[in-house]
Structure formats: C-alpha cells, structure tokens
Amino acid sequence: MTNHKQTSRQTTKKPRKKKAAKKQGKLPWWGMYALALVIGLLVIGGGFYWFFIKPYAYRWKPCYGRQAYGVCIPCEYNVHGIDISHYQGGIDWGELHKNKDTDFPLRFIFMKATEGGDLADATFVQNFDSAKAYGFVRGAYHFFNPSSDARKQAEFFIRNVQLKPGDLAPVLDVETKGKNKADLQRSVKTWLDVVEAHYGVKPILYTSYKFKENYLSDAAFDEYPYWIAHYYVDSVRYRGHWEFWQHTDIGEVPGIEGDVDLNVFNGTLQDLSNYTLPEVH
C-alpha cells in the first residue's frame, strides 16, 4: 500500500504597493507669483484709497442742498466768508467784490499776517488794505509755532497788524502740538493774554475740532471764540460752542486762482459785529 505525502501549500500574498498620495494644496510657481501680485495690488490699492481717496471722498458725494463756489454749501448759515494768504497769489479784488452780490454773498475775509516770531506774510498788507477798500469785514491771523517764544510771537503780530474799529478780533491759528500738551497750553495762553491786553478784545482761536478736544480742552480756553476747521462733512462734529466754521479747503471763488478755504459764521451779520473791535468814543 503506497503512502502519498500530502503537502499543504500556503499561499503567501505579496504586499501591494501603496499608491503615492497626490500632493494637494501646493500651487505651482506661477500661481505663487500670481497670488503675491494680487495681495500686493490689494495692499497698494487699499493704502491709496485710505490716504488719498477717503479723506477727499466728500468731494464726490451727491449734493442734496445748494451748490456754490464749487462745493455743496452749508446754506443754513447766512454769513459766509473766506480766508487767504500768500498761497492764493495775486487777487483780483474787483472780481472778488462781485461775490458780495450772489445767493451766498461773501461778507468777511481772514488774512494770514504772521507766523512764528519773525515771518510776515508777503501779501498781508496789500490784502488787508484791499479788503477794507472793497467793503469786506476783515480779520488777521497768526500761525502759531510751539517751538518759538510765545511772547515774542505775540509782540511780532502786534507790530505787524494795526487793527481798527470794525475789524475782526485777532486770530491765533494753532495746529501743531509741540513738545507736550502742558507746554503748548502755557504758550498759547501767553500769546492770547498779550494780544488781548493790546487790542482790548478776546482773540479768536482757530483749530481743528480734534485738536481742540485733544490739546485745548482745558477750561481756560473755553472763554474764547472758536473758529473750527472740519472739512468735507455736512455739519461740525465739535460739540462745544463755535463762532466760525471752516468747512472746506477746495472752494472756487471768482477773483482768486486755485482753491480757497470757505467759512461760515454761526450767527447773523449783526451778530458778527460782536466779534469786532469796538468804536472808540
């Protein structure tokens, strides 16, 4: 009898090779460059809008009121005016005088007289005399330099500006903060005191509404008349009392080449006389 050896065959499965996983999420080189370009353009475009378009967007806002002098005029105020300096160059006063007979007649003109302790505006004397000759209520302002001695600045202004009865009170233009708030306030108060003692009227303080709130919020300055600069808005955001509002720096006024600042007075023409030098009896 024959014995057959049975051999058991074990089937050994060869391990299957795993398919290489497809790489996902990685852009080709040209895609990386394209993405960087898009991001760069967005950053540049955003920066351009923020610094060059947004501050002047009001220029393109639709005007739902009245337009005059190239802007949407705050027509709820009756007394309008401008302020000028050497930046406006030569002025055709005969043509400018015609703006007294428009729907929004110009009544007053502030003129830059001095800056710091030794800089006089080259056009002041001629402009100041012409404003008087053509029947405008005139005023003079001093651009304050916090780095210069305040008393010296006040005396320099006094030497250069001969105000007469009917002229607007002298103006101090404060726009730069200097070293610190305390020093600025002391210097500004010194100028105001010296000038008030000389002319016998309280000076007008010109500044932006933000600068007023940040640097001149002390009660010592609340007694002064304010001329607030706030551009491209429908109304002044400053919540305190104000007498003058400089509402734009892009006015177009016949008789003056280029842009000019436009202002309104917060009252009637009769009220305006309360901020002028009184008649001497």
* Large-scale geometry: globular
Number of strands: 11
Report the biggest beta sheet as strand number plus sense, adding barrel if it closes: 8 strands, mixed, barrel
The assembly state of the depicted protein chains is single chain
CATH superfamily descriptor of the largest domain = Glycosidases
The whole-number mean of residue pLDDT values reads 88
Describe the overall structure.
With about 280 residues, this protein is an alpha/beta fold. The protein folds into two domains: about 30-60; about 65-275, Alpha-Beta Barrel (TIM Barrel), CATH 3.20.20.80. About 30% of the residues lie in helices and about 20% in strands. The protein has an eight-stranded mixed β-barrel with strand order 3-4-6-7-8-9-10-11, surrounded by four helices. Helix 4 (about 150-160) runs parallel beside helix 5 (about 180-200). The longest helix has 25 residues, at about 30-55. The protein is globular, with a radius of gyration of 34 Å. Mean pLDDT is about 90; it is low at about 1-10.
